[in-house]
From TrEMBL:
Pfam families: Mss4 (PF04421). Keywords: Guanine-nucleotide releasing factor, Protein transport, Transport. It comes from Umbelopsis ramanniana AG. The keyword Protein transport applies. GO terms for molecular function: guanyl-nucleotide exchange factor activity; zinc ion binding. Transmembrane segments: none annotated. PANTHER family: GUANINE NUCLEOTIDE EXCHANGE FACTOR MSS4 (PTHR13276). This is Mss4-like protein. One of its GO terms (biological process) is small GTPase-mediated signal transduction. It comes from the Eukaryota. GO terms for cellular component: cytosol; membrane.
Amino acid sequence: MAEISKFTAFATPTTDLVDATNNTNLYDILCPRDNCRCLVLRKGAATLVKRDPIKPLDESDVPSTNEHFWHVGDMMDFDNVGFSKTVGDTKFLSCADCDVGPLGYHNIAHQPKEYLISIDCARYRPRN
Ligand SMILES: [Zn+2]
């Protein structure tokens, strides 16, 4: 079984995690929680983009200030994903298995549709 790495294991994640030929994810993207093996996005399913960081739900809950996200344009591109709260135009994405989140967000007003998973709210597993 291939080993799962935390985001912090990568020295330069915006290059280490990315296939330079097409800007897609070079690793399977898994739930960030240690004992959860939920596959969120398969290798090659998403592209790296820069967006506004995840809006904190309150001051004590800042999941990530990272501006880099894995982007997909269709819900069906996920292997597994859940929705937690909706606040205004923002639907927060969570792990489908353990509900940890927010891992990212979906702005319902944004066209074309996009679903974003923060690159530091995930773990990474190599795939051949
Ligand atoms: Zn999980």
